[in-house]
Write a structure and sequence with these properties.
- The complex is a heterodimer.
- By secondary structure, chain A is α+β, with helices and mostly antiparallel strands.
- Chain A has helices at residues 6-9, 13-16, 32-43, 47-60, 70-82, and strands at 20-25, 62-68, 87-91.
- In chain A, strands 2-1-3 form a three-stranded antiparallel β-sheet.
- In chain A, helix 3 crosses helix 4.
- Helices cover 53% and strands 13% of the residues of chain B.
- Chain B contains four helices and four strands.
- A four-stranded antiparallel β-sheet of chain B has the order 1-2-4-3.
- In chain B, helix 3 runs antiparallel to helix 4.
- The chains are: A alpha+beta, B alpha+beta.
- Chains A and B meet through helix 3, helix 5 and strand 3 of A and helix 2, helix 3 and helix 4 of B.
Chain lengths: 93, 167
């Protein structure tokens, strides 16, 4: 029976299932303070973290918000869409 | 229109009759953002496995809008005017939760009216000569944004003084 070396075979959950990225995209109509407010509400973030991601969206056109399981990523995307933010999810590489 | 903070941490938006009617008219336009516009799939890198999820999202947003529509009607009916020497005043009380509710509704109106104008860059709106169909949409977009700013500012103040912060 083959033996398994625990030091080389231990894979993290991330290696097995990298999950989904939740991405928020820029649009010119949502107020900046509104986007910060929504990030705080949906993710429970502190103002400073929510501001950082809002500025990323504004300056870079998008921000990767979280990496989650498919179920949780869908949950967050639904929440963001209820607030009318343009959010998508894609499989993490 | 005047916003004041109450001792219990709530805010009061005290509106003249005309302002209240204007807000009611604005809210009666809800929803303006079409539910089928929502997609959780990236346009650049679509995942065929998420096609069903897209339909689920649209159904969920549509149900959410129907619920909100009913809540708006109930909320408007719940606001009682008070009389003063100059006529009716409408005291609109709100806490953080109610402010969040209203901000989200106003955003639907702002985004939906913007979409109906073919998604212009907001800074180009002042250069436009709007026609009679565009004027009401621009009004909805701008007034929704104004109310959003007032409510977001009130929430910021609530957080600073430790009342009714974002939960």
């Amino acid at each position: 029976m083959p033996t398994v070396d625990p030091t080389t075979d231990q894979k993290t959950q991330e290696d097995v299932d990298p999950g989904y990225l939740v991405i928020c995209w820029d649009d010119p109509v949502n107020l900046m303070d509104y986007v910060t407010h929504v990030f705080q509400k949906v993710f429970g973030w502190e103002r400073s973290k929510a501001d950082k991601h809002m500025l990323e969206v504004h300056e870079n056109g998008k921000s990767m918000l979280v990496r989650e399981s498919m179920e949780m990523a869908e949950h967050y995307v639904h929440q963001l869409h209820r607030y009318n933010l343009h959010a998508t999810m894609e499989r993490s590489e | 229109m005047n916003v004041t903070r109450q001792e219990d941490g709530q805010f009061e938006l005290r509106m003249e009759e005309e302002e209240w009617r204007s807000l009611c008219h604005l809210l009666s336009q809800y929803p303006l953002t079409p539910a089928d516009h929502h997609s959780l799939n990236s346009k650049n890198n679509p995942d065929p496995g998420l096609k069903e999820s897209d339909q689920w999202l649209r159904d969920s947003v549509s149900k959410h809008q129907t619920d909100r529509e009913l809540q708006i009607k109930q909320w408007i009916q719940s606001i009682e005017p008070v009389d003063n020497d100059e006529g009716h005043l409408y005291p609109v009380l709100f806490d953080a939760e109610r402010a969040d509710w209203l901000i989200e509704i106003l955003n639907d109106l702002r985004v939906g009216s913007w979409m109906s104008l073919n998604c212009p860059a907001p800074e180009t709106l002042s250069d436009k000569s709007p026609d009679s169909e565009e004027w009401p949409r621009i009004w909805i977009m701008e007034v929704s944004g104004m109310y959003q700013s007032i409510l977001l500012q009130a929430l910021d103040i609530a957080l600073e003084v430790g009342h009714g912060g974002i939960s």
